[in-house]
């Protein structure tokens, strides 16, 4: 398993990983930590993508969708976890994200 976040949080992710290392090994798993910038194209493909609380900043929506596209292949399962927010422009951002994502699926952009 690989976990990612912006570069500023890599140190914190490594700290949490080290704190839970025995549980991960006991379960037979391995975890690596990487920084991921949605503005940079990645060559990595994933069978499963789980992203949480990523729909909060309008300028990041298109890079997020492009990153999901770049990291996906036709069998990839993508799970989105988010808190439904009702303040400021958050409802509009959530609707826009899902509209852009569905548009990409309909255009077969996720079948790379």
Can you walk through the features of this model?
- By secondary structure, this protein is an alpha/beta fold.
- The protein folds into two domains: 1-36, no CATH class; 38-112.
- It has four helices and four strands, in the order E-H-H-E-E-H-E-H.
- It has helices at residues 10-19, 21-26, 58-70, 90-106, and strands spanning 2-5, 32-35, 48-52, 77-81.
- The strands form two sheets. Strands 1-2 form a two-stranded parallel ribbon. Strands 3-4 form a two-stranded parallel sheet.
Summarize it.
By secondary structure, this protein is an alpha/beta fold. Helix content is 41%, strand content 16%.
Oligomer: single chain
Q: Which structural class do you get from the secondary structure elements?
A: alpha/beta
Describe the strand arrangement of the main beta sheet, using strand numbers.
Answer: 1-2
Q: What ranges have pLDDT less than 50 throughout 5 or more consecutive residues?
A: none
What order do the helices and strands follow?
EHHEEHEH
Total separate domains: 2
What average pLDDT do the residues reach? Answer: 87
Overall 3D geometry? globular
**What fraction of residues sit in β-strands?**
15-25%
State the distance separating the first and last CA atoms.
21 Å
Number of contiguous helices: 4
Largest sheet properties: 2 strands, parallel
Helix content: 40-55%
- Computed over alpha carbons, the radius of gyration is 15 Å
Number of strands: 4
């Amino acid at each position: 398993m690989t976990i990612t976040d912006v570069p500023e949080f890599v140190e914190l992710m490594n700290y949490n990983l080290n704190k839970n290392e025995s549980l991960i090994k006991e379960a037979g798993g391995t975890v690596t930590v990487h920084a991921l910038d949605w503005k940079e194209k990645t060559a990595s493909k994933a069978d499963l993508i789980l992203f949480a609380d990523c729909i909060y900043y309008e300028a990041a929506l298109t890079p997020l969708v492009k990153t999901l596209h770049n990291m996906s292949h036709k069998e990839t399962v993508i799970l989105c976890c988010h808190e439904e927010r009702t303040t400021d422009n958050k409802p509009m951002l959530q609707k826009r994200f899902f509209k852009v994502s569905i548009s990409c699926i309909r255009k077969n952009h996720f079948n790379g």
